[in-house]
Amino acid sequence: MRLQLEEKDKRLIKGPIRELRNTAELIANVRNIQRLEADRNKGEMVDICHVLEEIKKEYEHLPGREAGITLSQECTGPMYASNLLKDAFGNIVSNAIKHATGPVQIGIVSRPEPHEGIAHIRVSIEDNGPGIPDELKERVFERSMRGDTKVTGQGLGLYLVKRLVEDQDGKVWVVDRIAGDHTKGARFVVLLRTAPAVAS
Length: 200
Hints:
Layout: H1 7-37, E1 43-46, H2 48-59, E2 67-73, E3 79-82, H3 85-99, E4 104-115, E5 118-127, H4 156-167, E6 171-178, E7 181-193
Parallel strand pairs: 2-4
Antiparallel strand pairs: 1-3, 4-5, 5-7, 6-7
Helix pairs in contact: 1-4, 2-3, 3-4
């Protein structure tokens, strides 16, 4: 970014940088899955609002990608949750950016929401990308599912999301951003049970 490069030279550099980032993300996902399967996933006090603010800052200025991210939150204070929760939300946002064929707009909304009489927090992450067909909506969370593209590491990221959320007694699912038209983008919804503010 500091060098005075012509546009063609910038394109030559952005490609390898993107692949390095994808490879680093794949390695991180494998390591985190190993931690989950070995039951080494530790809980701590997590501020969801702070986590999502960090996600916005990290992903809206990726080299070679145009991603606009909006964030709307109703903060509920810290909750006891996995210290890998940021990785879960980061994987959803990262996937939206990877699969976009051009500039992508991502909207993140978090708010408290009661579920079955218990306090929860609902985080919705939607994009205007190519979307996910109905027949693939359940399968995208499978470990071996790679979708229609050749994006490095796809399949592990959303599998990790599902494992992390379910380990928190939560739920995650995906719907169309525009109901009935999957080509207008996807909306991932994470529902997490809100823990007491002080962990025992």
